[in-house]
Write a structure and sequence with these properties.
Layout: H1 8-21, E1 46-51, E2 54-58, H2 68-80, H3 102-106
Antiparallel strand pairs: 1-2
Domain FAD dependent oxidoreductase: 7-77
Keywords: FAD, Flavoprotein, Oxidoreductase
Family: Belongs to the MSOX/MTOX family.
């Protein structure tokens, strides 16, 4: 999947949408690349410290590119602050706190409070 440039049906659907939105656009060629998305149960990205010195920013849910500057800022602040979240941050930490989802993948139990 990573090497083939994406699914043909997805490419055709995107081309159809583009033609609908921009009917006067006549591209000489169309080139596509596959990408990977990570989804979280909350639909918010996971941003914060997993342990002292180990921070994460993941789970863009397919629409994080537009927010990448802010996600990067939050991730940098989380990585550099004591406790994993900047004290003066107006966004709620609970909306972005990383969660361990071991059980959903392996059937195992994660640590308490995960």
């Amino acid at each position: 999947w990573y090497r083939n440039g994406g699914e043909a049906s997805s490419i055709a659907q995107l081309q159809s949408w583009l033609q609908t939105l921009l009917p006067d656009l006549h591209p000489l060629r169309v080139r596509t690349q596959a990408c990977v998305t990570c989804h979280t149960p909350t639909t918010h990205p996971y941003i914060g410290q997993l342990a002292p010195g180990l921070a994460v920013a993941t789970g863009g849910n397919g629409f994080a590119a537009k927010s990448s500057d802010e996600i990067g800022r939050l991730a940098a602040a989380a990585a550099l602050s004591d406790g994993g979240w900047a004290a003066n941050e107006c966004l709620p930490r609970d909306a972005f706190v990383p969660r361990l989802l071991v059980g959903e993948v392996t059937g195992e139990q994660g640590p308490p409070g995960a």
